Fold each of these.
Amino acid sequence: MVGELRYREFRVPLGPGLHAYPDELIRQRVGHDGHPEYQIRWLILRRGDDGEGGSNQVDCKAEHILLWMSNDEIYANCHKMLGEDGQVIGPSQETAGEAGALDKSVLGEMETDVKALIQRALRQLEECVGTIPPAPLLHTVHVLSAYASIEPLTGVFKDPRVLDLLMHMLSSPDYQIRWSAGRMIQALASHDAGTRTQILLSLSQQEAIEKYLDFDSRCALLALFAQATLSEHPMSFEGIQLPQVPGRLLFSLVKRYLHVTSLLDQLNDSTAEPGVQNSTPEELSGERGRLELEFSMAMGTLISELVQAMRWDWTSSRQGPSARPSCSIFQPQRADAGPGLPPAQALPSLRRSRRFRPRSEFASGNTYALYVRDTLQPGMRVRMLDDYEEISAGDEGEFRQSNNGVPPVQVLWESTGRTYWVHWHMLEILGFEEDIEDVVEADEYRGAAASGAVGIALPSWRWKPMTELYAVPYVLPEDEDAEESEHLSQAEWWELLFFIKKLDGLDHQEVIQILQENLDGEVLDDEILAELAVPMELAQDLLLALPQRLDDSTLRDLLNCRVYRKYGPEALAGQPAYPSLLEAQGQPQESAGAASVEAKEAPTRCSDTPLQRLLEGCGPAGKIFLDLERALCSEGPREIEVKPLLLQLQRQPQPFLAVMRSLDTPVANKALHLAVLRILTQLVDFPEALPLPWHEAMDACMACLRSPDTAREVLQELILFLHRLASVSRDYAVVLNQLGARDAISKALEKHLGKLELAQELRDMVFKCEKHAHLYRKLTTNILGGCIQMVLGQIEDHRRTHRPINIPFFDVFLRYLCQGSSVEVREDKCWEKVEVSSNPHRASKLTDRNPKTYWESNGSAGSHRITLHMHQGILVRQLALLVAGEDSSYMPARVVVFGGDSASSLNTELNAVNVMPSASRVVLLENLNRFWPVIQIRVKRCQQGGIDTRIRGLEVLGPKPTFWPVFREQLCRHTRLFYMVRAQAWSQDISEDRRSLLHLSSRLNGALRQEQNFADRFLPDHEAARALGKTCWEALVSPLVQNITSPDEDGVSPLGWLLDQYLECREAAHNPQSRAAAFSSRVRRLTHLLVHVEPCEAPPPVVAAPRARGRNRSHDWSSLATRGLPSSIMRNLTRCWRAVVEEQVSSFLTSRWRDEDFVPRYCEHFSNLQKSSSELFGPRAAFLLALQNGCANALLKLPFLRAAHVSEQFARHIDQRIQGSRIGGARGMEMLAQLQRCLETVLIFSGLEIATTFEHYYQHYMADRLLGMGSSWLEGAVLEQIGPCFPNRLPQQMLRSLSTSEELQHQFHVYQLQRLDQELLKLEDSEKKIQVSREASGRGRERGTGEGAALEAGAAVAAGVAGEEAEEEDENEDLYYEGAMPEVSVLVLSPRCWPTASICHTLNPRTCLPAYLRGTLNRYSNFYNKRESYPALERAPQQRLQWTWLGRAELQFGDQTLHVSTVQMWLLLHLNEQKAVSMERLLELSGLSPDMLNQAIGPLTSSRGPLDLHETKDAPGGVLKIRDDSEEPRPRRGHVWLVPAQTYLKAEDEEGRDLEKRRNLLNCLIVRVLKARGDEGLHIDQLVCLVLEAWQKGPCPPRGLVSSLGRGSTCGSADVLSCILHLLGKGTVRRQDDRPQMLSYAVPVTVMEPHTESLNPGSSGPNPPLTFHTLQIRSRGVPYASCTSTQSFSTFR
């Protein structure tokens, strides 16, 4: 569900704490498609922070949204508006009963009474003209008001005489009569919006209304309109400074607004009236077309007047409209925009220099910087080329000075009003005023950009590579027909027709004549004009003819409209067609600067007055005002000369506005101010001067009135002028009240001690207009809000009907509404006043922008404060203090900033800053997110313990309040409601028939493409476009995704079903002519559209709110309006894809897990799923991760033994592929490719419980490979890729163990050489001793004694040698071996990582190996023991060696090289001494098990082996003999592999069941530990430690389990974590939501607990660690050949 269904009311989330629910069916109509449509009022519901209903819910009846809905949408969203039969209850069914309740006869009598009362009231009103109204008249009007409140009598009051009566009553000077008229209008307007609008419209459209209504009457009628429309369009513009609109212009806006609303009601009711419904389709279409054209023209007129009233036309005239580059509004704009998505670029200024060179003419920036440095002079105008800190590109200013600092250039910038230092290369020289020309246009810049002069030419939007089909979520429309592109669209033609209809009399006939001449003389009426197909050439001719026939305001609209920008002469020629008008538009902003320049420059022409020099910048229009001045100064009759000039000024008011705005110039212009005020005072006496836009320049008058430096003479003249103006028209008294003139006049009176003539009278007059000012503000808000609602309604109709918006200036109105808050407000524009704690007379030094002046406090330490009273709605972007290190102890050291709603409630600390002694500018606040009415800066401490402080300046920077936040909220609300309702209707269709999901992509494509086209056509910037795209995506796509990914009763979601169907027909879709190909194409388009938007930034943190549990738990649909919805879309889609993959893999595992080729088929299935994921969603990591998670979930569902079987199959498959890759050639490469595919699949085991069993089997098979075939590079490569799949990292430790063994072998080799050198040295010493004793015996006298001594000595020596030989007999057994000495390598294997299953079959070298091998092994044992006895800083406990039968050898047998195992080597070498040996003897000598011995004998007795097994009666197991060549010939040369084949384990054997028992035992321990901790839970690390401790000390597995595990009863943390994952998946253990590392017991489950007993029975401590060895034997020299006829074996390896 998209929204919530509570208390039988469907609610749609619109934003944080806001919901909308359907309240009432307003009206019904027939849509453009012929189906009925219903207008529903959706009320806005505000919720409390708890997110629940009840007392915290407030229904705001004033806030509502009117939405047209179809039958399907009402059926899906508005259940209470459906009858019992499921049909919509029409609006007429509710009022039929009420209308019929009044008897017809009684109704006729009442109608007669009303007509008589109307006639009597008119007669009484005529009789009391000029006198006090009699009581009978008031009673008659009172009775009429009572009748007017009866709804069935509404038709009688539509009599024209009623309007005459109301007109006379409203124009009456008596207040009671006007009040009674208001009562009657209120009674008539209380029935419905249509009646209210009709009455107000009828009154406002009277021709004599302006003549009869005075100020009070007009205000009374405006008050009625404000009261009537207040509840229609409730909209708040708090914080936005609305312009001061006088009552005359406001009344005109009211009339336009009423006319537009009336036409809109007629449009909505035109197809609902019975008479119209019975008309022919041609008549119906013609009538509707006429109404649409009339409505569009009226709406264009309203927008035009509203833009002028809001002063939008001149505030942004210099910027001009900028075209927004086309880019996807549904995808966040990246910093590096690609082709087709260029960032918005600011248009260049309209001014350039005539004689200074631009930067583009220089080869480098350094050269240009030198040119600027040498050319620039003080006083020259410059423009900024680059953004630099607070200065933006395009800002203009005046160059002041330069120095050797960095940056070196000081410029007085107009945008900031103060100086700022920049670099040379950033400036463009404009020169002095005479060097600047206004000739550069935006279109010229675009032409330069297209030709490559500026930037890089980008490809068009329509150009795309073929691989970029899914670059945008919608399919681009096909190119327009060539014939259609040669004509104006209907919207463009109606915009041009708007200006044609503005022409009067002869001008209109001339333009119509031009149309007829180009259209073959066809007679053009209004109906034909609306449907004309106008060629582009004709439009260009019309645009050339129109400007000379339009007044200034309409011409300004023409120059700003879209059709002129596209087809006008400027767009074609690239230069302005009317530069004088552009100069006039720019003059209001430049008047102050021109006046200041005039004041500073020395007068060069003495004859020119200041007023003449001011008006020179206004062009030809300035001459009108100069002629007006001369006419006013003449002594004769002035009316004849003045009136025509005033009429011209009404058409071209720019000189008049420039003169009035000159009052807001420096005080040095006293003469200019006095001259201007005297002229304006005289103009007020002429009635033709009242229509001039006085209100647009009242700000300048107020600035002059507030300025403390204004001269008294100027102030007196200003007050006289304002008093005269307010007396003639009280509308301007209301404007002065809105501008705060009352306080300004009071301060002026205080300053001049009340000696200002008429000042008090003016103040009283302004004060009396307080309620009128409030009325005007409310009316302005209502009209603007109503226009915004109508604009939103047109956007909704555009969405629903897919018809273009043909309203003129629609894009202009949206452009002004969408102006963002990028304009910055500085210093005094942000705050109302600044207060200080002491020395208030020096507070102005804080804001004089002079760093050499300062405010110095006077008080105790820590009591210094600066208080800012902020303007309403200002959000501070930056607040900074200017300080100076030279102030020493006066410099602040710690500053604290507080905020509050008033000066007495400054309780919130906003920031605290420690000021460094070297600081000059201290930033106190940045980017506040809420408005603080009062901000206080407190200096808590000064440097060096100072008492008073000095502040050099105060800087405040804040955003300018604009209409964009308000319009964005309304636009997003309407868009969200429209698309959520539509999403619910589409979801209803999908829930009823899943096959309709195939049409969802085309539906979404149409909606998204329409929003994209609307944004490209009407929205001016990326901010507004992205806001619309984001809202549309969240409201339409996100709920749809949530609905189609939610499982039904069977646990299958609609999208999951569709993806299943796609996977099933994927193979058949390869044929492009098949239905499966078309089906797959639709599915791919849908999925790629849904994943178009990906989150590009981290979502804001969401505060966790308590949620209901159990059955009352429900989805929080309000999160759809507040959270980052793209991520929720991706989350739902990935969850659905994961469920699909899980189901697919589970089905495959269930049916294929016993197959012999299970692993290859699984890898192929996984590869197909990967390809499908890429086809459906693109190469997105989220869906690849969902694929892996789906496979992992399927594996987790397997029973333990089945999962162990799967893991064993994968380990076996990898083992076979690694062994097969050693073959080489094509077969070996194929094995490597299969291995790689398998490894990609195995990576899913990482982090799963199955990884433990997989590691167990892989460890066994890897050990057999390493011992039987040796290590290779492939082993390390495999482990590097699937290393995460081994939780205990045992295979990695096995490879490290091999490396350690190789290092030990190198050390042993050096040790052997040392022992050999030692023995040879002893032999040399013995030989020397014998030689010396022989020489001594030859010289002795007593031979007998000498020989005895010699014999004795020899005996002694012999005894000593014998003693040594007895001590080192084992080590030197092979020193005197005469055959080829074999090469022996020893592998030291640690039982911690090697699976030594044959540990019980130990090798005794003394009994099983020949002497020439035993000596090497003994020497290695001695070497290892001595190495272990060496002292070391850190050494593990001493390990003892134990020889095993593991290993391999190479033996020479004739011309063959036999590759055998260690057991096979011993057996073959034993046959060197005996011709035959029985199996019993071999078992007795070796101590091996029969299975292990038979496994070794099998290959030796095969056809390739050298032995035969003879069965005899004496030997039960048989007798082994060397095979005779005569019996069976065999190859005499080459290598023969006789190593026993790999033995694979079975998960169903006892070993697999023991693993299951160990897992169950660990599960039992985990559950017991968590049960003991209760609900508070346990940290996962602590849980692992406690379980391991319980494993070691407490209950343990039975002895059979201990022996079968190979590693005894050891258990690691990885095993415990694997069991924890298993219990989490089963739901036995749960994580805490706020602390996921905390685990607790969830639900009771049955855990299989094996029989437990003591881990180490009969022992008090752990067993000492064991180290196992294996042999690697290799011979050197020639193989030994026996002289006998039998073959013998010699150790070759």
Note: The first helix runs from residue 71 to 77.
Amino acid sequence: MEEDANQFPTKELLDNVPIVEDERDEPEAPEFQVEFLPPAAEKGADSGGRRPGNADADPSGKKTAAPAGFQACGLRRTLGRLETLQEEKELLVQKTRGELRACRQRIELIAKQQASVEAEVAAGREANNTASVGRLQAVSRRLCTELDDERALQSQLRAALLKSESAMWHIAIQKGRLEDVQASAQEEEAAARKGLRAHAAEQLHREEEALKKAERNRLLRVRKAMHLQKEHGLRHQKLVEDAKKNHKIAVKFLRASLGRIREQEREKEMGSQEHMRRRMDAVLALKNSISANRETLRKFQAWGQARAELAEQKARAQKEMILAQGGDAFRHLSHQRQRQELEAQNRAFEEQQRLRKQEIVGRILKEEAAGETRRKRRSSPTKTTGRLTLRDETWGYISDVCGDRGTVALPRNLLQDSEAVSPPIASQLLEAISYESVQGDSGNITWEHDTLAEPEIPGLWKEDYKPSQVPKEEVDRKPVGGTKMDKDILARTMEQLRSRVTHRQVASGHEFKGRPFNSKPKLIHFKDFDVGKVYKKKITLINATYAINHCKPVGVEEHLRDFIRIDFDPPGPMSAGMSCEVLVTFKPMINKDLEGSISFLAQTGGFSVPLKCSTKKCMLSLDKELIDFGSYVVGETASRIVTLTNIGGLGTKFKFLRASESCEMDTSQSVAKTSNLFTYEDKGIYDKITTSFSEQKIEGNESPPIDMTSQKESGKLDGKEQEEGRPAESEGVTMSAVMTVPPNEEQTEISLGEVAEGEIGPFSSIKVPVIFTPIIPGAVYTKFKVVFKNQQCPTLYFRVTGVAIDVPVWVPKPSVDLKICMYDRLYQDSVLVHTRSKAALRLKFEVCKELRGHMELLPETGYIQAQSSYTVQLKFLPRHSLPEDAGKYFDKESRVLEAPMTIRVADQIKPVGFTVHAVVTTSDLELSPSAVDFGHCTVYEAVRTQVSLCNLSLLPQGFGFVGLPKFVDVQPSDGFGTILPLETLQLDVIFQPTKAKEYNFELVCKSEINRCFKLSCRAVGVRPPLGLSHYQVKFAATSLYHTSVATLYVINSHVSMSSLTHSAPRVGSEDVSPVGPTTFEFLPPPDSPITISPLVGTVLPGKRCLVQVAFRPVLPTKLILQEALQTLTKEAEVKSPCKDTVTQRKDLRRQSSTLRLQGRDHLPRASTTQAAKLQKLDLKPRGCLPESGCPSCATNQFWGPGGKGTEAEAGRRGRGAEHSALSAPCPTPSPHNTLYLELWCPAVAPSLVVTSDKGKTIFNFGDIAVGHRGIKKVSIQNISPEDLTVEFSVLNPSGPFILLTPISKLPAGDTQVLTLSFSPRESILAQETLDIITKRDTLSLTLVGTGVASTITCSIEGDVLDMGYVIAGESVSSSFKLQNRSALPIRFSMKLDSLSSSRRGKSQQRLPQFLAFPAQRTEVVGTQNHSGQSVFSVIPVEGVIDPGKTQDFTVTFSPDHESRYFSDRLQVVLFGKKLSHQILLKGAAREHMMFVEGGDPLDVPVESLTVIPTCDPEHREEAEELKPILVTLDYVQLDTDMPAPPATRELQVGCIRTTQLSPKKTVEFSLDGAASLQHKGFTIEPSRGFVERGQTKTISISWLPPADFDLDHPLVVSALLQLKGDVKETYKVFFVAQVVSGP
């Protein structure tokens, strides 16, 4: 207990002193009061102690059972209370003793403090320091008081302790008394429990019976319920199945119905699309036809006019001539007109006959085509030679029809065959009908005697047009459009057609250039064709342009038109990447190679697909040119196969001969077969040979199969014979004389097999055996040739060699290679021995005596049968003494063993030998170093050290570290792998302690042959008082000048000295670190891109501190200077002349060799750095020197949990870094309590950079008007080595910034331009950030712009400018102003609706305004000038209004005819798109100076386009009519008694100001019948007067209904209004008055 008390620090004892003073005056604790047993318990204890067997002596047990049970329960309760009280007293005693011990320590401490204070008082008195002495005396008095208090407390604690101990003794005595009573009570309790168990067993038996009965009842109920449930389930299942069947049937019918409906809808949709497409095609065709024939129509019109003028001149001249001769010109002209009509009728009849002839020819050609089809379908076509064919009859009929003279067709009996047609008739046919018309459609027949083509649109030519007569001999020489003017017109027309057919295709700013369609296959190749057969191939055309394109075939070249036909159904518009198929049919008529192309025309230009047709040819080759039999014994026979292969489609005869022989083959048939022209009868020769290949070609197969099976079999046979039958060249056979036969002599040893000549078919191969039968020992050489019947096939040659020897026994493998062998391991192989002898031989196998301890041949003796083989077993077990035992047969440097073996044959002097080769190596693995000291390592990090594992063997070995402790790891591959021969692997041994202690262990490395190699290790585990929330921080790949931030915590978890609650911090087996505030400090290396905040801090026990780590890579200035220097150096080297080239090359070679050696030395480090591509920071503790033995400065590297790489030191802490209330010395900090923070800082170059505006990423659009748009273009470049997928952050959808040209992919090194727009909707300063996101990094662009509202004001009120009345032909001007009230210059433009093209399109699509109701008339553009010039004009039309400035505009009204409905609308457009104001312009024009306004409209505001001619002045009065004016007056009758006001209207009479001279300056007006009107209730003022120029006068009209007015009939009266000015005008004014009820 005293030891435990001594463990409390002095600081805690002093802190507890005031607490003890507070507890001194408390009353005594209740635990010190001893409870005594009750009297009954004491009595029971006494009786129980005197008579233990009293319970058994009682005669009446039933009566005493219950009191005994109660007594036992009371005893148990008493014992429980005693035990509880005893435990409490023990705890109280321990607590009192602890307080007493603490009190004693405080007394001792106070006594020591008194002694020190008295010594200080004595020293102060000696020094006469009164103030210090006084203070120290006060301290001394306080200490005395505290000492007295502690002593009093000590006495109290002693008394309490004695009292508690006495109470414990009393409790122990009472407990001993009750032990006997407790024993007897337990016996009685056992007897009672036994009786209870018997009763319980009986009760249990009864319950089990009842339970079984209940279980039987339950089972019956369950069976019944299951039966009912099963029946219910069967019914339900049947219902479900019926429902499923009905559902399937319904679904089937529903799908069928829906399918029919969809099919009908699809057919309707396709039909509508097809109809629409046909309509569009028809419209386009009509448009193109009209455009193409426009020039032709002009030419024909010009020709017609010229002919009409010429005919008129001729008629006039002829008439004058007849009149001059005195004849009747009228009669002559009538006769001539009748003659012309007769000629016209003749021409019409001839044209009708010609059309009928064409129809007959078409029918005949169709019948001929149908007959040919029927003949082709028949298997054996028959020809009739006794009568004319339908084709001959057709040609004869055509020749008769087309001739100008009435020739008669030849009789049928005179025509025997198709060759009987004479050449003149054929020439006439060629003149009449073109080749294309005969082969194509019958409706396309063209007759050459027509000089002009018929127009596509009938009715364009005049009826009296007579074509010019051209001589027939000039028809063939004169081209279409023979004159120069015709050629020019034709050239212009064709150029227009080409310009409409092809056009440029531009997509996303890129113009497509190149081939518009790709062909698959690229070459159409018809190989090995037969004349007369039909071959078909399909090609696929793929649209390779950027957008929709069209394609149509143009045709094939001229020399291919007779053989090639194209079947192509144009698919219409094709999207990019879509394809269509073209069927090419080839029907050869001549046996000749053809080459050409098929031309197509696309929307972007023409292209062609090459075409090639190859005839059948012989392509022969031999599989080998040299056959080497090798060495064979005389008398043996060997065979080799030479294969003759024909990969062509034409067969021929062949013959194998010796090179010295000659042979002449008949080539008459081959010449006949290779003729250029083939008839249908000759075609049968090739049908027998190439029937199967022709069928494959028709299906589209280009490459026919070749007989490769025979070649494979021959190759296998040759390999087998070479392996088994070739003797060894290294046999020990000596030949006295070797005979070499000259090659020019006949060789009987080498001969050909039975198949030496024959016929080889197309696409087949022939195998010819070559037999070698050696007769005389020596070398044999023969040369053979292969000649062919086809003269186009060259002669092929091949050579045959062989060697004949005479040895009976030999070894096929004279060298047995055991490869690489290890010591102390067994290796076996078999040696095969052959014999050529015809008798059995005895063999003896011998091993050289040096190797008999390592090598063995089993059996040592054997018998080999005649002409058979024998196998001997070779065993090799190398020992470590092999280098010394083998001697000369073993090379110690190369470790190569060459052991000669001998086979002795009976009755043979020279033995047969063979050699055993092997490379013997060791199986040792070497670990370096043999012992590893990890030093001190915290439990939060791991220490890594490198160990070299060297393989001393020449074989790769598998290895693995087995039985590793949990705190050790070996990498890579967890310590397992394969090490190559003589290779040294660097292994990382990682040690991560789990607790603070000293470690000593061994690592075991096992090889694959179960050899063990050990490595001794030791280390010291350290647990520091501080910890980090993360020991490894991996920053994302950060671009230059970007910042990445990570957050972590420094945690102080050391809150108690007890090692039971948590792991106490310590170094190895040293003492535990004290509890208290702990200070840390981060030590980043200098000039690093790492920023840690805060660097220094203090963490209280149980608290944590937030730390932020920021990584911002920058480009060092030194690196920039180095790159600049290297660039300048390279430029200087390029500019300087090349001198001493040889010396420079030698220096470069030396430098490269030096670099290679250096690269080998530093290979592991370089590879690690390149693989990681990271900036790893190794932060060492401050003040740590290399020679100090600090682990961070040693070769070991520190690892975080689960991390791999070097670490950075985060902080350190020493035992003296604690804070206390008193100042105490701080010991030297320990370097072992160091935390390491691993930082992975990958710094990469930015993948995207801004190349525009000097690389700035902030783009200011400046001030932009609201509703307008500002554009900025940003160029970004991909400087990374790979293509990047680009994504953009989402800008504010309601914001003013828009990315107009986003991109999805940016190739490496490519530059793209992004277009950004700023469109403000209000006056605001906007700013947003656009992030360009790639998989590498993100580029942020800051967009800034200011929106400025553009406002202008107009000086016209109501936006209506009325120009008034103007004399027709004169003009009047008016002006208004626009003021710019914004702070931005405004660009304006003035537009008139009458000049707008959109208004014309809209007006054409609507009904005329005069057909609409007046309330629905919204047309603002009224009557316009007849001359086509605009009625209204404005100056200026466009310009810029500066901020705060005013712009004046002048509007001029210039009518050219009389109308009251001149109107137009003037629109003020800002910045080309914003409509600011709309001003309605109105005006009226008169031919005279007077006008009248007012009244109800009687006409429409739209005038007719027809110009009404004016009358002459003398007839003006006659033509003058009264102009009506309607004035309607509505008198409103009120219900009240007050009289209603009269109905009033007004008419205005005006005089127009004009510049014309007029005798009258005023206009007089008078209204007749004013008196009669007054009787009707009308009042007119004034009824007469005059109006000056430029003035108007108002005539007021009012009406009150008279007394006799009929309300049911309105009042209608009229009066004449006369105006006198330059002319007199009379208007008839109709007054219609009525009474209406009031509201």
Note: The chain has 23 helices and 81 strands.
